[in-house]
Amino acid sequence: MNRENFANGRRWALASTIGLGTVAALLVFCIVYSPAETFQASGQGLTIWWRIVFPALLPFLVLSQILLAGGFAQGLGTLLEPFTRKVLGLPGTVGWVLPLGMTVGFPAAAEATATLYKQGKISTLEAEKLASAAHFSSPMLVIVVIGTGFLGKPELGLLLLIVHWAAGLATGITSHVLSPSRSKVQTPKDKIVQHKKTSRLQLALLNMEEVRREDGRGFGKILGDSVISGVQTMMVTGGYMLIFAVVIQVISSFLPAGIPAFPVAGLFEAHLGSYSIAKLATTPVIQSALLGAVLGWSGLCAILQVRAILGPLGIKGSYFWRNRILHGIYAYIFTLLFWKPLTWFTGVLPASIEVNPNGSIKSAEFLLPNWRQAITMLEWQTWLLGLLIGIFLVLGLFWRKHIDK
């Protein structure tokens, strides 16, 4: 296994070198070709990172690392293991990673997966499937930026978030059906007797204590390391967003006048792709379906951010490409199929949407959330994260009591 990981790491390093060289050459060309547009695009990417991604992600990155060091995710995984293995084909730690991805976003889920893998709690295949299943866009982007800022309708952002979550869960189930996991719950031999005589709650507490003891760091050290790791992840994320903002700007400038720019922007980056679609002249349902598809795909920028976290550990990315395509397709189809009931549920009735004469939604300018909106969203994300973890616990305990034999 170590040799395989070493070989995968070398291949990742080679691919990263080639990719970085190509991107560097492209950036030099962009700067020389159109320095003014390049500067404007880089400023736009930096603004998105600072106003949206940084406040929505950094606190949860630090919190996640602290909880992982204390064994919270591992203890939760002990309680949920029978349920998640049979239903989702994933280890019990998905009970922490999946809600984290749904409420915070994919970088936090990928970082948590990487930590679990480095702790030896999940295998290489489990890490790849776990990070792929928990790959979601942040609710800050979907509700505040797209719904409120781009479209001027927060309820429409809520509709997009519901579809985004449903399509992501459908993608995870489909992935499990297409590639069922054959791994079983692994219990060390010296703990088999203890496992039989101990309740699952007690076993979860014992596993938490074991993880904390193996970590061995004091709280001050854990807090400092968590902040350093979170800031480093944020720097990498910001660099990717800045680079892709420049690339999208330059490529779009080469497109003929009659060709829309949203396919290019949506292919590379979700924030800018969503903004391009928000300005598109089309019907509300098609516009929402395209937004759902872009959010499900998440963009090459997001995929490469995850690869930057998992690739050096030797974790492959084949599931990511397939699942991102499936996520986008599911989101597009779900929006078309359930548009009427979802608009009724969220209060976005077609008559209440402000539309242009050609039928498209009147989109706002490139509005970003203010700090009050960001703080409110952080509170909402925290409560939602706890709620989703509670739902997982209820489902896991119900499964064990009434179904699991």
UniProtKB/TrEMBL annotation:
Residues 52-152 form the Nucleoside transporter/FeoB GTPase Gate domain. Coiled coil: none annotated. The chain crosses the membrane at residues 12-36, 48-68, 88-109, 130-152, 158-179, 242-265, 285-304, 325-342, 380-399. Keywords: Membrane, Transmembrane, Transmembrane helix. InterPro entries: Gate_dom. It comes from the Bacteria. This is Sporulation integral membrane protein YlbJ. Pfam families: Gate.
